[in-house]
Amino acid sequence: MITVKRSHFASRFGNATSIAALAIVLVAAPAAAQVQPPAGDVPATATGPGSTTPDTSITPADQASEQAPVAGSDIIVTGSRITASGFNAPTPTTVVGEEQIARNAQPNIFNTIAQLPSLQGSTGAATGTFSTSSGTQGLSSFSLRGLGTIRTLTLLDGQRVVGANVTGVPDISQFPQLLIKRVDIVTGGASASYGSDAVGGVINFVTDTRFEGFKANAQTGVTTYGDGGQVLLQAAAGHAFADDRLHLVVSTEYAKDQGVGPGDFGEDLAGSRDWYRATTLVDTGIRNNGNPQFLYRDHGQAYQYTKYGLISAGPLQGTAFDANGNPVPFNYGSNGVPSKTAGGSVIGCYVGFCVGGDQSGHVGSGTSLQSGLERINAYTRVGFDVTPDMEFYVTANIAQVKSNNQPNPGAARTGLTIQCANPYLPASIAAGCAANNITSFSYGLSNAILPNIKVNTDRRQYRFVGGLKGKADLFGDDWTYDLYYEHGINITDINVDNISINRRYDQAINAVRLNGEIVCANPVARAQGCRPINIFGNFQPSPEALAYIVPENGPFQHTRQTQDAAGASISGTPVDLWAGPLAIAMGVEYRKEAYRVRADPYGAGVTDLSPNSALYPADPILNATDGSNWYAGNYKNGRGKYDVVESFVELNLPLLDSAALGKANVNVAGRSTRYSTSGVIYAWKIGGTWETPIDGFRLRAVTSRDVRAPNLSELFAAPVTTTVPNFTDPRPTAANPNGQQVLIIQNTIGNAALRPETARSTELGAVLSQPSWAPGLSLSFDYYKIKVKDVVSSLSAQQIVNLCVVSNIPDTCGAFNLDGDSKFVNVQSFNLASIDTDGFDIEASYQWRNPLSLGGSFTMRALATHVIKFVTDPGLPGTVPVDTAGANSGATPDWKLLAIQTYENDKFNLTLQQRWFSNGVIGNQYVVCDPGTCPVSTTANPTIDYNRMKGAFYFDIGGGVNVTKEVSMYFKVDNLFDHDPEPSPQTNTGLDVNPALYDTLGRIYRVGVRARF
């Protein structure tokens, strides 16, 4: 970490009063270390000299309430473990300060940090809402460089945090947010300094450990559509006792976000939002006639099911049922005509889809646009100065985060076999069966008669840290030391409501008339409480029938994760060399991660039901051995653990200190890590900075080898079984030469033989910081290149099948079986892929004091990231690497920009913010061509008629008024112009939008009040 020692500043600048004021003078200056601070003795809360851009929003008034740190403490900016005065780390670090966080007025600090351009692919309340079984709903976690949340190391005060998911990523919602005084974002590999997972970089939340006084914040908000209501209440207090030796800091907060959505069947979204058009990439199934294989079309419609039911194959194909159960001809769209064959194809339509027609059966619009989120957080820190240079401290952080979402309405089923003797069928259908000499037919419906699925997630964190830090005189020099032990527990409970059991549903729809009464055909099912249901129209099941199909106790998963971490490190300057002191940091660390998960017996497959027999009674209809009886949410039992022992050393060697040539240094680090699962692996870095003789101009460069060990989920994942409707079986048949849509079971399992990933990261940068000819100006440019090898990844179920059937690669043929009644595909992780990405960051800021003699200050800050390429190679024979840079259906647009302009004085402040990313494509693999001009379409490079996705520009405005010296009121409007998201077309009928990039909620209003005493 980059540190400015207080004692060094005192000796260099005399009796300086404000290191904090130094940050003000720097005004977002990238890594300017040698700037004369103004008078004062108030410590900085923002940045040290190694930062790329200190917080532009810090003002002298903000610093006045900060308390001086304990003697011997340092102001550290994440990026290195070196704590030597005047040291400039070669790794770029962006800093977001307390005031900037406050002015963005978000209900969760996660939302503010995720807006930075270098963060790509982060997950939050608006992502994953379509999911039932992932366990990531409502999980706020960061992804740097688009490399995924598992390759970004998130720290709290430089220490690890227990994961809120078995992937190991923490939940930012569980952090003590009101006490965060800044966030450091290290945009580069940092494994040698900080350990595993820091492939994309490090995000470190720094708390105010010496806060004194009281502060509070109350905020509320709502969207322009009248939904998404938000409430946020925060309070923090701090006080010093025992002659300023005992320091107590506490905080608490409560936040509730109602979420947005869901909509309904069809194309109706929540509120009056009207941008959903069921945009679909329909597959013509033709690859070599000169026409595009895929067509971009709005109002795509699957032709295997409808809202209230559709006969999907055979001589009666095309007969739908209205709400009253009357048979009606189905309007397929595309002028489609049912083939009335056993395969159920539709003449004039495409593979699985038509365009237009009856849109009532869509389920995508019924997905929550944002999960509801409720969080409670309590935090306390007690620090005692054993001596003026030694502090013993303990912290406790207890937090609970609840989320809820609706994946989709109903529970769509396709390929059902309905007997013509079913007594609920209208007489005309029974007569049609007789006329065509059939006894059954294929059927599909959205199941609007069933209650909508609800996923409820409850995460509880218990984190405790004890430590000792300070300074000691060794060999005539001050050495800083830090020892700590952390114990964290995260308990996650997932409960799914209103979900059906497939086998019971199948029994309930198979009705017969017995002794004049309609009953379930299977006597065993009848004995277990089966009651028949009418699925030919909008006929609500009886309470008894619903209780059988959708029991009150649905799927659940209880996960307990623990993390024990300990570390000891020292840093000092033992030798004075020709150009300055040699600085060294070294340490050892230990970490143990473990998890245990328990699931319900119907999903997990437990033959001994005695512990849960009251909630989940034995039922011979169900699969007791393998489980997977639910429509979705088939969680499994499992456990796993590993431990890690690490040691590291980092050196900073000054090379040059000359008035004529400037200053230069070399920074090197190495880390040895032993994983109990995979053995020893090494990480290293070497870099340097050159502060040139040119006024304010500095160069920096660093290259590193970084590592990421497989997480608990990848190594020991409890098998997860998911029902996947509308899966494409690409094998040709006589009835369906282009394949057919089937329902499969997808089994996701772990792999204990995985190896750590390794990455090579290189960064080259230039910084112009506070030149004499423009003292308020700071600019930086940094090029980065990251190559990750042995990437732990898995192919999708569709890829696995296509590689075997279409590409004739036998490696994947043993992972699935699409014949018989139990169709399945096994999905497992392997060290088979690689990621190669490069691009550059640009950061600029300028502060104008007393603009136009109006008083106050005007600050501008802009950050931009350009992704040149992001190539993922699946690593299997016959597969082709895919470049997703500029694919706006993913997480890495070509350009991403955040710009902020703020004017403030003693009475008020006004902030304008712009968020923008560039136009892009659906996918770079597609070949765009006009009809009659297309080459042969292949799996690697399919042809398409349209391959564009517009970017987006969001304009935000906020401001505040100082009512008194202690109290202020503020407002914020996000997405002022209510910009709608661009469709992200899929080859299914899910919600066609990419919430990782696009705002799906629309304009949001927030108001609040802050107090500080």
TrEMBL record:
Residue ranges of the motif TonB C-terminal box: 996-1013
Alphabetical keyword list: Cell outer membrane, Membrane, Receptor, Signal, TonB box, Transmembrane, Transmembrane beta strand, Transport
Subcellular locations according to the entry: Cell outer membrane
Pfam families: Plug, TonB_dep_Rec_b-barrel
Main location: membrane
Similarity field: Belongs to the TonB-dependent receptor family.
Protein name: TonB-dependent receptor
Organism: Sphingomonas citri
